Amino acid sequence: MDYDLYNTREISAFPPFPAAPLTGTPPRKDRFRVHLLALGDVGSTLAMGLRLLGGDVISALGICDLREGVLQRWEFELNQINIPGEGRFPPVEIVDMDHILDCDVFLFCASRFVPDTAVKSGDVRMAQYALNRPLVAGYARMARKKGFQGMFCVVSDPVDQLCRAALTESNRDEAGQPDGKGLRPGQIRGFGLGVMNARAMYFAQKDPRFASYLTEGRAFGPHGEGLIIANSIARYDDKLSRELTELTKGANLQMRAWGYKPYAAPALSSGALSLLACLRGEWQYSSVFLDGIYFGVRNRLTPDGCEVEQLDIPGPLAERIRETAALLKGIE
């Protein structure tokens, strides 16, 4: 691999945000040790994706869960995903809590509250914030204490807000005062926007009115309220884009209306596929630190750090982005 995963200097501005000067350059690696916390529906599906697809960039996949029997089950199952011959699949290993951060990439998939299928309306993701914020804060403080230098990746909902909470809480001293001695902004990354792009693509394939999204469209912002789907950058249509945004944003509620939890596509599109693209230095959707918040954009890791895609943003779309940025800044 010819880039430094952890050089977190932003090398391009994303309208209407200024570039954020981030620092820190841990050693470059060709393959990464990945540790995944919590093997619920999302975590276990994500682990399957990493085992199947990550052999070129993952040296080992460590799994951790506090529930009895879960780790034994998934170590047993995942290591039996194989083919005859020399398939290159990363070994799956059980990791205890004392060693959960002895890795290059930490995947936070834990949640204290996952709404069941009876929940069919409202922003389900934000309902999880009050309980999941203290949970991610605990692991962020653990990362501070350990001097963790890897990537701290949030997959649990709400992704963008939990990223900001991880940054804030890891940089407080024992008295609760900010001291800047915890995780650096560029170490934290949220994986939630990938499935929103995939859902927008699904609807664009179904309805020719949205077909431009497949080649010209972009997704911005959080995995949930404030999401922005642009039908096209070059030929932006605000009405069409807002309609496609609502379809995309409500896709999880459609799944719930059928009586199922929507976790397979998020675990693979936002989780496994986006993380692996990130580690390979490819363009992907994830939330990165911009102007004091974590904001989902198309980006890639380069030898110079995190490159955010530069676009000529139409005025109406830029205004939607500003509104979402203001919304995210207002959530503590």
Note the main sheet. Answer: 6 strands, parallel
What's the average pLDDT? 89
Rg for CA atoms:
19 Å
Name the strands of the widest sheet in spatial order.
3-2-1-4-5-6
Order of helices and strands: EHEHEEHHEHEHHEEHHHEEEH
Count of alpha/pi helices: 11
Helix % is 25-40%
Overall geometric form: globular
* Proportion of residues in extended strands: 15-25%
Instruction: Report, as a whole number of angstroms, the end-to-end distance.
Output: 37 Å
The secondary structure category is alpha/beta
By oligomeric state, this entry counts as single chain
State the low-pLDDT regions, or none: 1-28
Total beta strands: 11
Give a verbal description of the structure.
- It is a single chain.
- The protein has 332 residues and is an alpha/beta fold.
- The model is unreliable at 1-28 (pLDDT under 50).
- Strand 1 (32-37), helix 1 (41-53) and strand 2 form a beta-alpha-beta unit.
- It starts with 31 loop residues before the first strand and ends with a helix.
- The protein contains eleven helices and eleven strands.
- 37% of the residues lie in helices and 16% in strands.
Secondary structure topology:
Layout: E1 32-37, H1 41-53, E2 58-64, H2 70-78, E3 92-94, E4 105-108, H3 124-127, H4 129-146, E5 151-154, H5 159-170, E6 188-190, H6 193-206, H7 213-216, E7 218-220, E8 228-230, H8 238-249, H9 251-257, H10 264-279, E9 284-290, E10 293-302, E11 305-308, H11 315-329
Parallel strand pairs: 1-2, 1-4, 2-3, 4-5, 5-6
Antiparallel strand pairs: 7-8, 9-10, 10-11
Helix pairs in contact: 1-10, 4-5, 6-8, 6-10
